[in-house]
Amino acid sequence: MKTTLLIMAAGIGSRYQKTKGAKTPGDPSAIKQLEPVGLHDEIIMDYSIHDAIQAGFNKIVLIIRPDIENDFKERIGNRIEKICGRLGVEVCYCFQTLTDIPQGNTVPEGRTKPWGTGQAVLSAKSLIHEPFAVINADDYYGKIAFRQIHDWLILPHADQAIAMAGFILKNTLSDHGGVTRGVCKLAEGHTHVIDVAETSGIIKTVDANGKIGAAVQTGEGSDMRVLDPESYVSMNFWGFPAKEGSVPWYMEVLDRDFIDFFRTMVLENPLKAEYLLPTHIGGLLREGKVTVKVLETGDKWFGVTYQEDKAAVVESIRGLIERGVYAKELYSDL
Predict the structure, then answer these.
(1) Residue 219 to residues 15, 201, 206, 223, 225: CA-CA distances in angstroms?
(2) pTM for this structure?
(3) Residue 184 phi/psi, 5° resolution?
(4) What pLDDT, in 10s, does the model give residues 9-54?
(5) DSSP secondary structure of 22-50
(6) Tell me, what's the pLDDT at 301?
(7) Which pLDDT value is given to residue 24?
(8) What residues pair up with 59 in beta bridges, in sequence order?
(9) pLDDT given for residue 29 in this prediction
(10) Burial class (CB in 10 A: 0-12, 13-18, 19+), 42
(11) What does the DSSP 8-state code read for residue 244?
């Protein structure tokens, strides 16, 4: 069975750019997805693609912005195409743009950024006719997550079934600032999600005994809402089944609800409204329209949210290589 990994690599990474001192949103030197972290200048995306192919994915779709196409292909795309060609893995590109919106709508005056991860996935609708998984380009998920999602995708499923790679909140925090996570509420038995709440500004806390916690600042002062550090969170690693040769059902639902998003959220907040996967899936859950299976990973996430995160990512990659998780020549074992 053909299975696709859809990689969302169109994000501007505004917080990262700010710390790098980029002058413009399109400055390639500040595109965090292209930062080298491996022994041979591999980027985080290399490790995701490697793990996906090893798990059994045989098609890669890359979502990028038109303004970074040349830099992206020079940095990783051309190299990945050669590697995937050797392994019989298909590679495709699509573009997320501000103007790719439902027919009959116009871009609000002053709007400068695209419409979020939901719109990003929709940009690949014409390219995907098989079960697929979605990930962020700048997150390291670990081998277990790819194996679990892939193996779940190739099983038969009831309509409106979704899978989510479940990460523990305390394992997904940055030492250098707030992060956004889809905080999950699980059913009894911890096998299925019953709600997802996109939560921004989550910061890492450490008590006097060194125990890691998490909190969200709720006001301008020091008021904090404490979160359970053992909560499951979404890191935008989702699995969507489909009958091979047909458009996945989730693409159809996402497309339909994008029209409603413009009729409601965009009218209320035209410059900042975002069509986000966790928010959309959370809404479907509350309406009883989908089921979301939690696939526990146990792996520790890491990623580059802030420029200061890069050193820790490089160190983590080195540690994985030293323990034999990855070969020194990354793709040599495929």
Answers:
(1) 20, 11, 20, 6, 10
(2) 0.90
(3) -105, 145
(4) 987 444 444 444 444 444 444 566 677 899 998 999 999 999 999 9
(5) -SSTT-GGG-GGG-B-STTS-BHHHHHHH
(6) 85
(7) 45
(8) 4, 90
(9) 47
(10) buried
(11) T
Residues 6 or more apart whose Cβ sits within 8 Å of residue 322: none
Q: How far apart are CA 304 and CA 32, in angstroms?
A: 7
Sole residue written with tokens 């998490």: 214
Give dist(CA 270, CA 262) in Å, integer. Answer: 9
Distance, in Å, from the CA atom of 143 to the CA atom of 103, rounded to the nearest integer, reads: 40
Candidates 93, 26, 34, 89; CA nearest to 63 is 93
CB 197 within 8 A of CB 210: no
pLDDT at 238 over 90: yes
Calpha distance 170→205 (Å, rounded): 9
CB contact at 8 A, 58 and 130: no
β-pair type (139-140, 90-95): unpaired
3-class secondary structure, 110? coil
Query: What are the pLDDT digits (tens) for 310-329?
Result: 888 999 999 999 999 999 99
